[in-house]
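Good morning,

Attaching, inline, the backbone tokens for the sequence recovery test we're adding to the shared suite. The designed sequence is right after.
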């Protein structure tokens, strides 16, 4: 039973498409996607636990818990199966969810996801680690620092997914990232290579291609979903 209720933005009709934002963000990240995707799908853009307008709750603040929160959200809305698009940590949540509840996934879009913390390019990971350690030191004296430490712990300590486990995925998968993403390209390629029949799309840009190059991103996702919907 969920101890909180996830805030979400809902728009459109058709097959359900769930959007999961990245670390420290909210469903508002998908402002360029919701109006477009909702022309063809019933879009649910969710604020994950402790993000946006969703409360922190008392349960563990982990990606694994977020995946279970998503299961509870789908149950609450009588969604048996959905297309799931996750960005960054949202992609990691989507991947954990798909491995744990494969029967609930119609298709999977992984944007800037990683299997382990060191899938992040070194200079970005070093910045993340430093911010986490400084926030951890100040956490007892500052609620803001405590929240920062909780958020950055998700990137420092998680995820830990064995690439070989991805062979169990049977739903159609699109792995999409920027050519200058904070996730190392070889790591993104490892994810795509480890998933049977996964499609790989690299768009010119950085980690935030959905926000900075929305038309190219949306076109790639919709083209993939058109084929995935027929499966």
């Amino acid at each position: 039973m969920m101890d909180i209720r996830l805030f979400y933005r809902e728009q459109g009709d058709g097959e359900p498409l769930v959007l999961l934002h990245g670390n420290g963000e909210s469903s508002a990240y998908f402002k360029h996607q919701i109006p477009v995707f909702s022309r063809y799908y019933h879009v649910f853009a969710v604020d994950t636990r402790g993000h946006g307008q969703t409360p922190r709750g008392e349960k563990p603040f982990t990606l694994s818990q977020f995946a279970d929160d998503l299961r509870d959200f789908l149950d609450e809305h009588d969604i048996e199966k959905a297309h799931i698009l996750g960005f960054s940590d949202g992609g990691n949540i989507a991947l954990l969810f798909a491995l744990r509840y494969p029967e609930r996934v119609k298709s999977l879009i992984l944007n800037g996801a990683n299997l382990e913390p060191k899938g992040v390019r070194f200079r970005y990971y070093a910045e993340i680690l430093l911010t986490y350690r400084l926030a951890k030191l100040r956490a007892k004296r500052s609620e803001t620092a405590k929240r920062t430490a909780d958020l950055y712990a998700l990137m420092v300590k998680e995820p830990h997914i064995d690439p070989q486990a991805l062979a169990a995925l049977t739903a159609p998968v699109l792995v999409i990232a920027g050519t200058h993403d904070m996730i190392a390209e070889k790591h993104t390629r490892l994810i795509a290579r480890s998933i049977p029949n996964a499609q790989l799309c690299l768009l010119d840009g950085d980690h935030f291609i959905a926000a900075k190059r929305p038309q190219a991103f949306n076109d790639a996702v919709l083209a993939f979903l058109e084929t995935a919907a027929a499966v």
